[in-house]
Design a protein that fits this description.
CATH class of the largest domain: Alpha Beta
Oligomer: single chain
Structural class: alpha+beta
Helix content: 25-40%
Radius of gyration: 19 Å
Mean pLDDT: 86
Order of helices and strands: HHHEEHEHEEHEHEE
Number of helices: 7
Strand content: 25-35%
Strand order of the largest sheet: 3-4-5-8-7-6
Number of strands: 8
Distance between the termini: 52 Å
CATH topology of the largest domain: Chorismate lyase
Low-confidence stretches: 79-86
Number of domains: 2
Length: 244
Amino acid sequence: MHAFQKKGAIPLYTQVADWIREQIYDGTWNYGEQIVSENQLGEMLKISRGTIKKAIAQLCEEGLLTQVQGKGTFVTDDKISYPMGKGLLSFAESMKEQNIAYTTKVLEKRFEQANAHIAQKLHIAQGDTILYLKRVRYVNEEPVMLIENRINIQLCPGLEEVDFTTQSLFDAVERISGRKIKFSEARYAARTVGMERAPYLDVHESAPVLHLEQIVHLDNDDVIDFGNVWLKSNRYYLGMIYQR
């Protein structure tokens, strides 16, 4: 269980809010699901109910949680997915198309076992081996994007050997698997970055970010990647092309 700093500089309710936020971001509590009651949370975390209520109120104000009278507290599920742009591009391809110079730092690259949430996203069995990849992209030495990928390595054995500081994930997947990436299911949402990810983007923990959750399919419809991208909100806007 997470260790809270009850006498630290960060208010306790803010720490609790960040802990709840991470349960949502990592899929422990899914969008639309009811979370445990305030009393249960207090018992789990050894935190007073008053502090729990204040943390939940903060997340409701952010729009991450919704309280329904007589029913409880739910993870908000009111975001709309949009088809965007001219086609499916990786962020690396998008930057190259705009002639934006960037660098990539690989923070983590490891094998791990898929939990129930990740297994459902990748259409694999819980406990199957996946490749976890965490990277930061920089423009003019400023971190602008944190990328977390969970990849079905069974569809692309050998991908773990790729140097992702110089190669695009999409390019590497297509080259090694011998298949084309066909489409992705994507959803965007405005989020608060939280303590866990704020240092990677060099922002305050309460800073707003644009969060992209993306499921990427190959040309045989197999799911190759479940990705989460955290975009620095002062460096990105969404551009769309509408056709009638």
